[in-house]
Design goal:
Elements: H1 2-9, H2 16-27, H3 33-45, H4 50-63, E1 75-79, H5 90-100, E2 105-109, H6 119-126, H7 134-144, E3 146-150, H8 151-154, H9 162-168, H10 173-177, E4 188-192, H11 196-207, E5 212-218, E6 231-235, E7 239-242, H12 263-274, H13 280-298, H14 302-314, H15 317-329
Parallel strand pairs: 1-4, 2-3, 4-5
Antiparallel strand pairs: 5-6, 6-7
Helix pairs in contact: 1-3, 2-4, 5-13, 5-14, 5-15, 6-12, 7-15, 13-14
């Protein structure tokens, strides 16, 4: 580790194989917490390379406990987080709206590290049970059209890193990896990333997979379609800029997206929106994101997906999906 740290501190990069080796060693408890913290810190001060990201991803996918949900051909909606914007749980809400529209979802998520409430925090607060049991997950997808894959249950390799990430309290390259290491290996994904450089790297990596993908970054810094301005979207066959007006929507303010300071506040906002009682701005944002997920899954236009998302939210089907998942968790 000492040699690798010295190279990284000197602004050198490591190979894909070396990156993979470091993560395998972390999982086997080879390094002490200070070494791991230093390794994570280096990547907050310099950008990750394509090769390094590939090595980290390959290690985590090899070390994970896989779950086979291929019979449902689900989509995952997952952002990197780490955009520092303290929004409400947009991609988690969009996941239930997508499920309510009849698209099966395998939602990968974790506790918040750099935000007040991550996807898993709000799910837990609402009474959703986390499980790595294949039968339970399949039953969830059958009955609720969605299952929740809580990352720590499927990535035991990362147990040595979790307390260090929590203590650091800022985004690390594990944020970057989250969307790439869904243990169900879904063939459809809506991914949000926190900067353009990372979006470009993700685009290169996803090009070499058999995944149907849409990678989004709002140009004012969000890891999702924020409607506070333009969003760049990279898919299997296009790169486009989305303006809120393209969906017939007004631009909104950053303050419209605030997610509260605590998990309880986040859950309160979540419940309000899923009941269809959110503000117009909140509803539009979650439907814009769910709409792109539905469009990616069904291979239709974003506008058509957006209409299906609105219908799912307004008809109560998104809420029914959440209620079914909570019921199964009892």
């Amino acid at each position: 580790m000492k040699q690798i740290l010295n190279r990284l501190i000197n602004q050198e990069s490591i190979t894909s194989e070396e990156a993979k080796g470091v993560l395998v060693n972390i999982s086997e408890g080879v390094y002490n917490p200070n070494q791991i913290a230093s390794f994570l810190t280096v990547y907050m001060m310099r950008s990750i390379t394509l090769e390094e990201l590939q090595g980290f991803r390959d290690a985590l996918l090899e070390l994970c406990i896989p779950v086979d949900l291929s019979e449902f051909n689900p989509i995952d909606l997952c952002g990197t987080g780490g955009d520092g914007k303290d929004t409400f749980n947009i991609s988690t809400l969009a996941s239930f709206i997508t499920a309510g529209a009849g698209v099966k979802v395998a939602k990968h998520g974790n506790y918040g590290v750099s935000s007040a409430s991550g996807s898993s925090n709000v799910m837990e607060e609402l009474g959703v049970k986390f499980s790595d049991q294949s039968d339970f997950l399949k039953k969830s997808i059958e009955k609720a059209s969605i299952c929740v894959l809580h990352a720590p249950l499927f990535h035991p390799a990362m147990k040595n890193v979790a307390p260090i990430r929590k203590a650091l309290g800022v985004k690390t390259f594990f944020n970057i990896l989250g969307p790439m290491v869904n243990p169900a290996f879904p063939k459809k994904q809506l991914v949000g990333v926190f900067n353009l450089e990372l979006q470009r790297i993700y685009g290169y990596l996803y090009q070499n997979t058999d995944i149907n993908y849409s990678i989004v970054h709002a140009l004012d810094g969000y890891d999702e379609i924020s409607l506070t301005g333009n969003t760049k979207i990279i898919t299997n066959n296009s790169e486009t800029i989305l303006n809120p007006a393209d969906l017939g929507l007004p631009q909104i303010e950053q303050s419209d997206l605030f997610g509260g300071d605590t998990i309880k506040e986040a859950a309160k906002i979540f419940k309000k929106i899923i009941k269809g009682k959110g503000t117009e701005a909140q509803n539009n944002v979650v439907c814009a994101n769910a709409g792109l997920a539905i469009a990616t899954a069904k291979q239709i236009t974003h506008i058509e997906g957006f209409e299906l998302a609105k219908e799912s939210l307004e008809s109560g089907r998104a809420k029914a999906s959440l209620e079914a998942l909570i019921e199964l968790s009892k």
